Amino acid sequence: YQTKLEFALKLGYSEEQVQLVLNKLGTDALINDILGELVKLGNKTETDQTVTNANTSVIRETSSIESQRSESPLQEDVTEDGDNLRPIVIDGSNVAMSHGNKEVFSCRGIKLAVDWFLERGHKDVTVFVPAWRKEQSRPDALITDQEILRKLEKEKILVFTPSRRVQGRRVVCYDDRFIVKLAFESDGIIVSNDNYRDLANEKPEWKKFIDERLLMYSFVNDKFMPPDDPLGRHGPSLDNFLRKKPIVPEHKKQPCPYGKKCTYGHKCKYYHPERGNQPQRSVADELRAMSR
């Protein structure tokens, strides 16, 4: 036994492995048989150890991934989504007068619009209001909830456009220019029911920007409601309109059953994936164009 043990130890096997083999083969087993069994036992042990190590590493990696996921997955998603939202520039006068039914400058309407965007995760919201709206309410210029303006100004959301008095006459800066200029430079969204035609005629790039980035709205009592399709039914959804990079599928409409054979062109009410965002002429229009 001692001779066989020393032989196995010199080859790097342990005493327990030798005892296992001798219990299996008997103490009278030949050295070659013992060596063969030791080789098999060694290979099996190494394989089991490799599998165990692999399983351990997998468990560790899984646990680390799970721990990373459990830390703050929702917060990361919200943060990324917040960074993906466009800056908002609100035409305060337009919103306030709309909420006041064009009779009263309702500061509460501005607050409702601001809260709507803040609740959606927008971090960059700016409201422009002429500075003379800080003056006391008069019968010909009624203002309600005026303290809201001061509060929004302290929160660095509301900005008063300059105005001054010269020989008893008020000189007012054009607040619409502030609105369009900031929205254009920040690549944001203009919230207003005004079309800004005079400013659109000044610069071609402003005209294109106003056409593509103007968000209109309605007030239903105290509920601020922008449209779900700001640029029409063939344009982006409201969610994608307010984002820098769209993440919501645009087309939820039913695909056209006629596909490419459809003869309705851009008048077809179904979705045509092959057309993309470009309107397509009907077959009749194509034939007319070819005949010309």
Structure description:
By secondary structure, the protein is an alpha/beta fold. The protein has three domains: 1-43; 81-242, 3-Layer(aba) Sandwich (Rossmann fold), CATH 3.40.50.11980; 259-290, no CATH class. 48% of the residues lie in helices and 13% in strands. The strands form four sheets. It has a five-stranded parallel β-sheet, sandwiched between helices. It has a two-stranded parallel ribbon with strand order 2-4. α2 packs across α3 and α5 (92-99) crosses α6. The termini are far apart.
Give the key terms.
Rege-1_UBA-like, elongated, alpha/beta, RNA endonuclease activity, Rossmann fold, 3 domains, single chain, 292 residues, nuclease
Task: Please provide the ordered H/E string of secondary-structure elements.
Answer: HHHHEHEHEEHEEEHEHHEEEHH
Structural class: alpha/beta
Number of strands: 11
| Oligomer class | single chain
Number of separate domains: 3
Name the helicity range. 40-55%
State the end-to-end CA separation. Answer: 108 Å
Proportion of β residues? 5-15%
As residue ranges, the low-confidence spans are 64-80
Computed CA radius of gyration, to the nearest angstrom? 37 Å
Broad shape: elongated
Could you tell me the CATH topology label of the largest domain: Rossmann fold
Based on the coordinates given, report the CATH architecture of the largest domain: 3-Layer(aba) Sandwich
* Main sheet makeup: 5 strands, parallel
CATH class of the largest domain: Alpha Beta
The number of helices is 12
- The main sheet orders its strands as 5-3-1-8-9
Whole-number mean pLDDT:
79
